[in-house]
């Protein structure tokens, strides 16, 4: 089969388009013909390598998959369209699960075929195209998990970092559909205009403004009920600073680094909560499908690349030039 393989960590040039052996079916697993695989920042982390995280080479990236079942499996029939829930048992003490195509034992979806545990298969939402359906399993699921756990209600105010990111754009769409007021952050006019189209109520241009003061201005100094922070070290201090008493930081990413310094006194005197989110459960993915259908929400697709052009897709994400999901057509 054709696949994009990495044989070492590095820049986009380590993504190598090759012909390799098809996966052989194992007990309790199914083979899926991959139709589309969305690119996630996680793919960048795995490509570059992270301290203490092992990958056995050659490795195939890609955790956000929509495809076609190759054989009957349980209640699923051959040729049925499916999406893949990306979390699998990690087998590592105190680590709940690992992610397909990432730092675990499963190869990912930058390939014509993939082998996944049978229980990870979910029927593809019929009202979405294949390229849209593949985009929900990681960023949208994590955004949904964070929104649910924020307990934010209609008219509550939420700060969502990175309007253009997979997680940020998903969070804006889903939060607006729940009636939450959204303040978001973007870094240029193009991204600001796109964030407006998603329905964000206030958009802060981080290339020009002091984000903390702008958020306080928009909330009349009250602060926000919750912050969705996937940016990490550089944004955590601001996220805490703009939080109102009893507010929550929902944290899922470390794009700018994982060692943040925050003011502990500020943290406890605000009775703040910091909640970590790692994807979400399979049942949350199913409830996300239902919610998006009910609210007629379609995921934001930035661009579609051919599998052989995966390195260009990575270059685009490395440069932060996307708005929404970058998808590979396999
Ligand atoms: N825990 C989980 O289960 C989970 C799931 C999904 C994603 N994640 C993590 O969440 C993060 C986002 O993932 P993604 O796929 O959505 O990434 P992405 O599409 O590549 O977006 C990265 C975002 O970070 C913003 N950013 C970068 N530097 C910044 C700074 N100094 N200040 C403010 N914003 C900054 C970018 O904004 P500009 O373009 O405006 O610079 C962009 O919006 C990644 O770290 C990823 O690993 C975790």
Q: Could you say how many structural domains there are in total?
A: 2
Bound compounds, each kind once, are: NADP nicotinamide-adenine-dinucleotide phosphate
Number of strands: 17
* Beta fraction: 25-35%
The assigned CATH architecture of the largest domain is: Alpha-Beta Complex
Structural classification = alpha/beta
Assembly state: single chain
* Global shape: globular
Mean pLDDT reading: 96
Q: Would you give an account of this structure?
A:
The protein is α/β, with parallel strands linked by helices and 330 residues long. It folds into two domains: 2-136 and 300-329, Quinone Oxidoreductase, Chain A, domain 1; 139-276, 3-Layer(aba) Sandwich (Rossmann fold). The chain has helices spanning 41-48, 130-133, 139-150, 166-177, 189-198, 211-218, 236-241, 264-269, 282-294, 310-318; strands at residues 2-5, 16-19, 29-39, 64-69, 81-84, 87-89, 97-99, 113-117, 121-123, 157-160, 181-186, 202-205, 224-229, 243-251, 273-276, 301-306, 325-329. The strands form four sheets. Strands 3, 4, 5, 8, 9, 16 and 17 form a seven-stranded mixed β-sheet that branches. The chain has a six-stranded parallel β-sheet with strand order 12-11-10-13-14-15, with helices on both faces. The longest helix is centred in the last third of the chain and has 13 residues, at 282-294. 45% of the residues are buried. Residues 40-42, 45, 138-139, 142, 161-162, 164-168, 185-187, 191, 206, 230-231, 234-235, 252-256, 277-279, 317, 320 line the site of NADP nicotinamide-adenine-dinucleotide phosphate.
């Amino acid at each position: 089969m054709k696949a994009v393989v990495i044989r070492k960590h590095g820049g986009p040039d380590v993504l190598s388009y090759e012909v390799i052996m098809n996966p052989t079916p194992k007990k309790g697993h199914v083979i899926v013909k991959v139709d589309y695989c969305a690119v996630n920042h996680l793919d960048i982390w795995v490509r570059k390598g992270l301290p203490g995280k092992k990958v056995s080479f050659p490795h195939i990236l890609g955790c956000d998959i929509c495809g076609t079942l190759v054989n009957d499996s349980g209640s699923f029939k051959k040729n049925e369209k499916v999406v893949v829930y990306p979390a699998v048992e990690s087998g590592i003490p105190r680590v709940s699960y690992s992610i397909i195509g990432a730092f675990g034992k499963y190869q990912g979806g930058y390939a014509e075929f993939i082998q996944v545990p049978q229980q990870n298969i979910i029927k593809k939402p019929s009202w979405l195209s294949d390229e849209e359906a593949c985009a929900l399993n990681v960023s949208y699921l994590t955004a949904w998990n964070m929104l649910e756990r924020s307990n934010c209600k209609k008219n509550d105010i939420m700060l969502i970092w990175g309007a253009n990111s997979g997680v940020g754009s998903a969070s804006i769409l889903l939060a607006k559909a729940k009636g939450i007021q959204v303040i978001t952050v973007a870094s240029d006019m193009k991204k600001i205009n796109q964030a407006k189209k998603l329905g964000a109520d206030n958009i802060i241009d981080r290339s020009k403004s002091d984000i903390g003061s702008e958020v306080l201005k928009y909330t009349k100094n009250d602060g926000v009920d919750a912050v969705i922070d996937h940016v990490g070290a550089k944004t955590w201090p601001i996220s805490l600073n703009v939080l109102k008493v009893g507010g929550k930081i929902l944290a899922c990413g470390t794009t700018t680094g994982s060692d943040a310094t925050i003011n502990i006194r500020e943290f406890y005197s605000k009775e703040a909560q910091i909640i970590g989110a790692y994807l979400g459960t399979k049942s949350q993915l199913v409830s996300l499908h239902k919610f998006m259908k009910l609210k007629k929400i379609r995921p934001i697709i930035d661009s579609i690349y051919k599998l052989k052009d995966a390195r260009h897709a990575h270059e685009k994400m490395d440069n932060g030039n996307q708005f929404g999901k970058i998808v590979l057509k396999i």
